[in-house]
Hints:
Elements: H1 6-10, E1 14-18, H2 23-35, E2 41-47, H3 51-63, H4 69-75, H5 79-86, E3 87-92, H6 104-113, E4 116-119, H7 130-148, E5 156-160, E6 170-173, H8 193-209, H9 214-231, H10 237-252, E7 258-263, E8 265-267, H11 285-292, E9 298-300, E10 309-311, H12 312-325, E11 333-335, E12 342-344, E13 347-350, H13 360-373, E14 390-392, H14 395-419, H15 421-449, E15 452-455, H16 458-470, H17 474-479, H18 489-504
Helix pairs in contact: 2-12, 7-8, 7-10, 8-9, 9-10, 12-16, 13-18, 14-15
Amino acid sequence: MEMESIQHFLESKTILVTGSTGFLGKLLVEKILRIQPNVKKFYLLLRAPDDDSAIQRMQSEVIGKELFKEIRGKWGKEFESFISEKLIPVAGDVSMQNLGVKDANLSEEMWKDIDVIVNSAATTDFYERYDTALNINSMGVMNVLKFAMKCVKLKMLLHVSTAYVCGEGEGVIMEKEVYQGETLKSTSSKLDFEIEMKLAAQKLDALRSQGISEQLIASDMRDFGLQRAKKFGWPNTYVFTKALGEMCIGQYKDSLPTVIIRPTMITSTYKEPFPGWIEGLRTVDSVVVGHGKGKITCFLADPGCIMDMIPGDMLINAMIVAMVAHANQCPSRTSNNNNNNNNYNNIYHVGSSLRNPVNFSSLRQFSYSYFTKNPLINMDGKPIIISKGIVFSNMAIFRIYMLLCYLIPLQILQLLSKAFPSYFRDLYVTNMRKFNLVTRLVQLYKPYVLFKGIFDDTNSERLRGKAREMSSSNDEVDLFNFDPKCIDWKDYLINIHIPGVKKFVIKK
Length: 508
């Protein structure tokens, strides 16, 4: 059977996108509208109480972004009518049954129309409160699956996960399924999604019965999530609940054609629709920005640690190719001769660590080079002078350094600020903020800046081959390129990514 070209497949299709106000959701919608304006329509699920609020969110948080400037330029005065024909905002929420869609007629219409569902809804906060993370990253997947099963002509359910569902893995990490009940600690009890949901609800009820403030409840629920994640071997609530979400797919997908995409660290666009577009600080960008602002002068990291990054537009290309390649196909297992484990053909690592690695030492050098030539400006209008900073690859030495160079001097400054507030208070506050920032970032990113794993992308390499087979021309091959080997990391980081972060994210 001859394969359908990628662009031709998208023609006349109806696509439901969850997480459509997020970074990936917007990139996906923009890409398809730009390269295949004959797509039938998108249903954009937006967390909103009513239709008017959903429309407002779509206008301000999706099509109102600079990301859509090329499409605006192409359509000119007809842009608004084009958008109103193609994009249908739907008030709802993945954490609710029926995705929170209250209009029965709309639900029926969606079940009849939808060809493809892309579930990119997620909370990516490493330290999210447990009930929230479970409701979106785990229960949300269940709700999407149940909704998908009612779509009578569904050709594909594509779920966006994360490569770091592996936890703090080492060596070559394969594109294999996360099995129901699987844990990363051999001594742990069996992991059960339904039990975790009950425990989170019980914990929340117990806290509310104490009559404490919502702020304290939120803090305790965040701590509870971290405690549950670490109990089973995951470093934070985000990757733990994403792993639970994958388990839900494995157990309940039935005969649905499904694909799981596992990106590594997602960065700004490489080329499309223009280089350097980004929204929010992503992954290690917090460290880069802290460095540029002169707030991070020391950090914990293995200089040789591979920073597995992939530009957002390349990830979108991989998602679209996988969507087309596996339309109407049920997941199948294949034997992997290297590790005797079963792999799913439909699980894809999308990253760069195997084929084009870049390490933390290089990232640090590129950041220093950029901000030395293009310094940020402080509140007084003066350029911020930065140093390369000190990097510690050992946690024990890092803690000793922080104690001697920051914590003890801070304690002295605190005493002086109380005795002579006009002289020392501002200095104490500034240094305490720096200390808290470095401490928080180290806790958040420690599993990733000391990461010892390399993500195998055998399935993704096969998918690149399928993309060439499905493409009708060399131009279409280029249009859906997601091969990390083409990236010159020095050029990309210094001339595209960091300037993009500076332009779109950094607030003075």
